[in-house]
Amino acid sequence: xxxxxxxxxxKWNRAAKSLDLGNRGEHLRYxxxxxxxxxxxxxxxxxxxxxxxxxxxxxxxHIEVTAIDFSPVMLSYAERRMGESAAPLELVQADVTELExxxxxxxxxxxxxxxxxxxxxxxxxxxxxxxxxGPGRLLMFEHVRPRLPYLGLMMDLMNPLVRLIGPEINRRTxxxxxxxxxxxxxxxxVFLDMVKLFEAEKx
Length: 203
Ligand SMILES: C[S@@+](CC[C@H](N)C(=O)[O-])C[C@H]1O[C@@H](n2cnc3c(N)ncnc32)[C@H](O)[C@@H]1O
Fold this sequence. Notes:
By secondary structure, this protein is α/β, with parallel strands linked by helices. It has helices at residues 3-38, 72-79, 121-131, 149-165, 173-179; strands at residues 44-48, 64-69, 89-93, 106-112, 132-143, 183-191, 195-201. The chain is built from five helices and seven strands. Strands 3-2-1-4-5-7-6 form a seven-stranded mixed beta sheet, sandwiched between helices. Strand 2, helix 2 and strand 3 (89-93) form a beta-alpha-beta unit. Bound molecules: S-adenosylmethionine. S-adenosylmethionine binds at residues 8, 12, 23, 49, 51, 54-55, 68-71, 74, 95-97, 112-114, 117-118, 124, 167.
């Protein structure tokens, strides 16, 4: 495991205790969007990344879910929320950039504020493309770098500080999804052009 990954795991282990506090308002505001997006999942589904499990309540009963996170502390919190999932759910400690699942082992991948946090986003997205089968479905709820010039520049300036304790706020996730070989089929603005839903296929 690289030093960069080890540092990132330590950062998210430290963040686990306060994540719910910061995220509670977001979930009240964005919960309905996540519920609708996750409702489109089919079959064997990979959820990246579990965090403290705040997303489990949006998982529909008709799917079977493997939720991963590389932070053991996040997973210890998530374990307490497993009962909130209507779907059968297992938790696995794994780095999305080094997945050990076989090729084409999932029908759907769900992400939720994930690719603002994964250190090497394109490497992680390429792994997701590898483990998806058939046309595959990548359903993402993500916050990204806004295209509005002043706001985008502000995020670039703030990012070096923010990333020390949390996610990156200037990720170009649509570009990263395409760079990993996916075909982007939907990009929907939930809040300005900063919080978005993406849908993509293996292409
Ligand atoms: C901002 S939190 C979001 C958690 C949760 N999805 C939510 O919305 O409440 C980002 C999560 O991504 C996880 N993460 C970051 N990089 C990862 C990687 N390479 N592999 C697996 N999990 C990762 C962190 O441990 C953290 O739990």
